[in-house]
Amino acid sequence: MIKKKILVTGGAGFLGSHLCERLLKEGNEVVCLDNFFTGQKSNVVHLLSNPYFELIRHDVTMPFFIEVDEIYNLACPASPIHYQYNPIKTVKTSVMGAINMLGLAKRIKAKVLQASTSEVYGDPEIHPQTEAYWGHVNPIGPRSCYDEGKRVAETLFVNYHKQNDIRIKIIRIFNTYGPRMHPNDGRVVSNFIVQALKGEDITIYGTGSQTRSFCYVDDLIDGMIRLMNSREDFTGPVNVGNPGEFTMLELAELVLKLTQSKSKIVYMPLPADDPTQRQPNIDLARKELGWEPTIPLVEGLKKTIHYFRSIE
Ligand code: NAD
Ligand code: UDP
């Protein structure tokens, strides 16, 4: 028996495709909406034969009409090179996408989850970051189209909840990696693995002392679904990520070791406004979602390396 009918925007992307897969496995009917900017049909091609899966080409900046029980709003490019390609469009996707999905949720009385980001904390001055921290974002810098777009989306979600009683959930996702990241996506984990496997130079931006905390995709999706199903009056925002913190140099060395690659490490200029440190405090996720990550970086990297080898 079908449990729920669920809309996933950005469903053909990296995280979205894993989410669609999990929701189908749990017996739900899934409608995947995507404009294929950074996502691809190949990410969900294995789901197309499932009669409870539907793939629709649509841009979230335009209104969309459907009847569903729940909406996961993931549509938005996530890699800096992609979201900076057309910054105005990135802002429109976050802001108009949020308005359209909240308007839809209001009309059909659906529950709606927003994929927010650790980027709302910008280049954080407190460490690790808790949900209570307001962030340190440059509103006119190269990352602002993404950071500020996501911050406005949070504002919209909170106000639709207060003003219109919409059931909302906000997840602040920290750097997530795993199979189905696009090989040319530009994010650090995919870059380093692809470079190592091809024997190309490993490109560290800056000194490599900046830190990130990497969450394996299966853990992240588990946290996201738990949030959607959390108690009615818990809206978030809630951090979901793996607190294991690594410098980019440590990550490069680990990838070199696990791939047994002879690639050399080279240093390139640090992009403007690149955050120097990032680590989630996940006490709230532990308490409200009963969630914590289970897959350490070494194990997740092995699975991801295996994936990139398989598509070489
Ligand atoms: P991704 O680029 O692989 O996926 C984004 C998907 O959204 C793609 O399929 C893309 O084609 C689609 N999309 C973009 N603009 C659209 C539009 N206007 N209309 C319809 N579809 C559109 O990125 P991802 O890593 O899967 O990220 C998914 C979501 O999670 C994003 O909202 C991102 O901001 C958020 N997030 C991801 C991470 C991470 O580390 N992966 C971290 C924080 C937040
Ligand atoms: N980075 C790097 N080499 C690369 C790609 C990224 O050193 O080839 C660095 C980047 O400068 C940043 C970190 O890795 O400090 C994470 O970058 P990513 O784009 O994956 O995520 P974000 O900066 O959005 O957290």
Q: Your description of this structure?
A:
- The chain is α/β, with parallel strands linked by helices.
- The chain has a domain of 214 residues: 3-Layer(aba) Sandwich (Rossmann fold), CATH 3.40.50.
- It has 9 helices and 13 strands.
- The strands form 4 sheets. A 7-stranded parallel β-sheet has the order 3-2-1-4-5-6-11, with helices on both faces. A two-stranded parallel ribbon has the order 7-10. A two-stranded parallel sheet has the order 8-13.
- Helix 4 links the parallel strand 5 and strand 6.
- Helix 5 runs parallel beside helix 7.
- It is globular.
- The N and C termini lie far apart (39 Å).
- 47% of the residues are buried.
- The site of uridine-5'-diphosphate has 13 residues, from helix 5 and strand 8.
- Nicotinamide-adenine-dinucleotide binds next to helix 1 and strand 5.
Low-confidence parts lasting 5 or more residues at pLDDT below 50? none
- Residues in helices, as a percent range: 25-40%
CATH topology of the domain at 5-176 and 215-242 and 280-293: Rossmann fold
By CATH, the superfamily of the domain at 5-176 and 215-242 and 280-293 comes out as NAD(P)-binding Rossmann-like Domain
Task: Tell me the radius of gyration.
Answer: 19 Å
- The appropriate CATH architecture of the domain at 5-176 and 215-242 and 280-293 is 3-Layer(aba) Sandwich
Largest sheet: 7 strands, parallel
